[in-house]
Amino acid sequence: MNQEPIFMKSKGGGQYFKCQGEEVKIICLYEFNPLVERTRMRPDTLGKLACDPCSESEFREAELKVARLLDLPVLITEETRA
Length: 82
Prior knowledge:
By secondary structure, the chain is an alpha+beta fold. The chain has three helices and five strands, in the order ββββαβαα. The chain has one domain. Helices cover 28% and strands 32% of the residues. It is globular.
């Protein structure tokens, strides 16, 4: 069964999480250690972190920022131009 994704960000705003079931995509925007990571995490573990809900668009914006920090190629679409 595929669950709807839940988007969260850390209280400081430097980390973003996309949770879908046990799978979590983590975006870290700290310049000293930017990263994109996929891992498995129990929902109760994420609940213990100091996070607030965020929108999907905030998460997508964080994805673009980390791609620039890591000098990764970014597919240009109408959505990324905005």
